[in-house]
Amino acid sequence: MFLNLGIPVISVLTAMGFWNCDAQVCGRAPLANRIVGGSAAQEGAWPWQVDIQINKSHVCGGSIIAKDWVLSAAHCFPNPSALSFYLLYMGRYQLNGVNQFEVSRSVRRVVVPSKYSSPDKGQDMALVQLASPVNWTDQIQPICLPDMGTLFPGGTLCYVTGWGNIKEGVSLPGPGTLQEVEVPIIGQASCQSMFQVQSSSDTLQILSDMICAGFQNGGKDSCQGDSGGPLMCRMESGIWVQAGVVSFGLGCARPNLPGVYSKVSAFSDFIRQNIPGIQLYSHASTNCTTGLMVLANTLLLMLLIK
User: Fold this and answer.
1) Cβ-based burial of 225 (10 A; exposed 0-12, middle 13-18, buried ≥19)
2) Is 75 one of the annotated active-site residues of the chain?
3) Considering the entire predicted model, what is its pTM?
4) Which residue of the set 124, 147, 209, 221 is catalytic?
5) Please, are residues 265 and 147 in contact by the beta-carbon 8 Å criterion?
6) CA nearest 63: which of 288, 264, 277?
7) Which of 197, 306, 174, 288 shows the shortest CA–CA distance to 251?
8) Which of 58, 75, 247, 262 is catalytic?
9) pLDDT by residue (tens digit) across 58-84?
10) How far apart are CA 302 and CA 87, in angstroms?
11) Continuous segment of H or E residues that includes residue 274
12) 81 is annotated as an active-site residue
């Protein structure tokens, strides 16, 4: 038996944004079975991964956050006004293989924070607007971005993906299959202490817009060519949220020198200002269906009381 809510109730639902809701769906990978303990990602496992190329050569990674926007690192775009040589690939799996699901786009514009100067000084983030939107498929999906209050405590296991070097000075071999590595988040204070260099008077500072991930003993890390790519964590809801953007490190996978990432949650205002309407993830967020059910049940209760 269905309740006839009537035109007035439907009007209320519509006005409050719950009817015909078009909330962005992000952080879900339809083809999400992965190789356990391996380093090569399964095709389609990370559908937000982007390959950024200059003159047909891979230079950086990125992540899809909307149909016409990609998140990457500012240092991947040293001259944000010189964009004609850039080409971005979505749905790509191998750098040197056949990628039947990929699409490519040129760049309309790049926005970086006004105070950015170099990765070690922070503000290493870039919002890249595509020349035209992409369509969502199983292989091309957006990742969720965290709101300011979303926390990623030390010890949280997250993934980094990219086509960068597999060791210092060693390029990804063969067909260039997308790589994945699981690394734990390292708290800011712990990361700072690990980077203390006693012989140097100019100690690297882990700033509030940075987040670290890796192992104290080294061995697993992002590397050259992974810059701009995502550090992402799976939340309790099963949604993948991007905690960081690959920014810099001292070498790759060295002991006591974890990877340093731009903390995405620290840029929530910057993201909102430049991408109107984007929805950022928080633990308090409710999706469209949940909101509709809550409101409908409330209205039903009101009608029954009458």
Assistant:
1) buried
2) yes
3) 0.83
4) 124
5) yes
6) 264
7) 197
8) 75
9) 999 999 999 999 999 999 999 988 899
10) 55
11) helix 268-274
12) no
